[in-house]
Amino acid sequence: MGTEVLLVAGLAQHDVAEEVWRASPGSVLVRHDLRDLAQGVVRRWVDGRLTVLELAHGCVSCTLRLDLLPLLERLGGRVVVHLDPALEPEAVCFALREVDVRVEAVITVVDRATWLADATGEDTMDDRGLGAAEGDERTVAQVVVGQAEFADAIVLTGTGDDPALDAVLDRLSPLAPRRRRDALDVPELLAAIPGSARRGRFDDGFGALLHGQPPLRPAHGAAVVHFTERRPFHPMRLHQAIDVLLDGVVRTRGRVWVASQPDVALWLESAGGGLNVGNLGPWLAAVDDWSEVPAERRAAASAMWDPYYGDRSQELVVITRAAAPDEITAALREALVTDEELALIDELEFVDPFAEWHDEMEEL
After folding, report:
1. Closest Cα to residue 59, out of 89, 36, 43, 82?
2. Residue 32 C-beta-side C-alpha neighbours within 13 Å
3. What distance in Å separates the CA atoms of residue 326 and residue 100, rounded to the nearest whole number?
4. What is the pTM of this model?
5. Phi, psi of 81 (to 5 degrees)
6. pLDDT by residue (tens digit) across 116-135?
7. Tens-place pLDDT, residues 47-74
8. How far is 217 from 146, CA to CA, in rounded Å?
9. Alpha helices in 277-354, H assignment, sequence order
10. Angle at 338 between CA 336 and CA 341, to 5 degrees
């Protein structure tokens, strides 16, 4: 029998995973402690029984590949996994594709008192003593924003009722039902997750950037900027404009087309003061054989195909906390190539600060 998994993520101390386990008769509770991962030591509990693991290589991917994945396959049935704060649910779900495991839901725990400050700050996981390995350069913002964004349901702990937090979560994860810990009814929460929820699925970066129906009108300082254009960015001007995506912004995600790399789709993602730039691969306009391209991507590209540019385009979604949406849009628009540059684009030589950037979203 395959394994059905409920993943419980979150940076704050909580007992939500235990509550989910108690509400699921016959399930197994698994928890890892990665605080000593850099020394190759992982502590793992299965229904309260501790096992100390010694790994030859102290890294997150080793923990997943050598312990969690085979453990889940071996256990079978329903398993509640309390993720260590260093483990991001999206990365775990990516790894789970290799085994006979189905993700029933990802539940993220959000501390009302600290989450918004964490989501807009610059502290690294290493600064907080939460790094997955020595020198973990991920920011706390990247982790907590990713946990909430990938959630199928959110449980709120801590005190306070900050309308700004609710406004940000409405835009970051509009499909996820939210419930307070002190009134948590686990079966009701799981039943409230809509059929269109992600449940561990993710796309290749070319899918829809707006999931669900986030409010598009500003509220309590939170707003959504959806920037689209059918001309390339000037690479140096885009590089200079990036600061506008790091100040007063909770999240930026999207596909970027720079004039210096016309065949390559770049992925740009920020959270708080942390930024990743990665390579998504070629635009379909640069691909001769589409036979291996997923049908969803072919359909999306065909629907917005331009006779000259093909599927090349800019699409960025920015969720603000305190930044001015108009200023973000203006800065991005000013980073596009001008009409004069566009006319001479095949003759110009661009200084490209993105040319040597590597994908910083690779596994630690």
Report:
1. 36
2. 28
3. 47
4. 0.93
5. -110, 115
6. 999 999 999 988 888 877 77
7. 999 999 887 766 787 788 888 999 999 9
8. 23
9. 295-303, 325-334, 339-343
10. 110
